[in-house]
């Protein structure tokens, strides 16, 4: 199955919701009368909606004059889909340009929306950059449960499959379950996972992992980190200590600091980006769980607000459920259009 098809299928909650709202929006001003009078039939011919369909016209041919009321509702639909107020207003204004007062179909509206979303997303769609120095150090940050461990496992498997040698450091030494989970992913991918006793210093584990990755000539070192935001000062100190010690081995490390965000948290993802940018030098984002939510629009809001690179998106729990971020595919899937 192509990743687009999978994306479209798996993002069904977001895309169905937006798609249905847009269908309803275009049909909204058609009178909902079961038995049309000749006059109503005339109206339906001009503005086919629910009534138009009763008269044999398909949803695809429904059209509505783009006016202020329709734009206002479009804004609401986008805000409800978690695209954020500023972003929704700008997208709606762009869609209005050149179309105001004209009769638009649902398909045209979806195409226009997909184009606007892709325009916002294209500048931030960037695969994880790989630099020539070895090992490439990727620090992975994010709140507990956002999908860090799973993302590291998936990335490690994919890099391994692409012929790269990878080492993982299970840096969330406070959570035995997180360490075990990483070990499972490591075994599955054939990638060594360095662990340390529960409660021990993650920076010292990171240093050992860096030493091993250098000695092994590994291409990539991925470091998991704790995500306890309850005590931000501690977490900041923990993250900066990890960075300090790995810089003793390579002053340019970490080469990437990925923030993993859970799409199901919706607007809260905005706060998480703001917080983690203060705690660490976040260089890019991975958004997980786009399969489990109707809040897929949050990724558009993040791209619009922060402009941070989006490296990949997660749409499930399996290895191949993490894919590079493709802005056009994402935009079309989000609004419910085919590839
Ligand atoms: N549906 C879905 N579930 C996901 C995805 N990514 C991760 N998960 C699940 O989300 C849960 C949390 O993921 P973890 O990888 O353990 O998250 P974490 O950030 O490492 O969390 P801690 O281990 O608590 O620090 C797990 O049950 C994963 O299987 C995704 O893209 N889609």
Automatic annotation (TrEMBL):
A biological process from GO: SRP-dependent cotranslational protein targeting to membrane
Record domain SRP54-type proteins GTP-binding: where: 135-336
Pfam annotation, one family: SRP54_N
Catalytic reaction list: GTP + H2O = GDP + phosphate + H(+)
Cellular compartments annotated: Cell inner membrane; Cell membrane; Cytoplasm
SUPFAM superfamilies in the record: Domain of the SRP/SRP receptor G-proteins, P-loop containing nucleoside triphosphate hydrolases
Domain called Signal recognition particle SRP54 helical bundle: residue spans: 40-121
EC number annotated for this UniProt entry: 3.6.5.4
Keywords per UniProt: Cell membrane, Cytoplasm, GTP-binding, Hydrolase, Membrane, Nucleotide-binding, Receptor
CDD domains noted in UniProt: FtsY
Protein task: Involved in targeting and insertion of nascent membrane proteins into the cytoplasmic membrane. Acts as a receptor for the complex formed by the signal recognition particle (SRP) and the ribosome-nascent chain (RNC). Interaction with SRP-RNC leads to the transfer of the RNC complex to the Sec translocase for insertion into the membrane, the hydrolysis of GTP by both Ffh and FtsY, and the dissociation of the SRP-FtsY complex into the individual components.
Protein name per the record: Signal recognition particle receptor FtsY
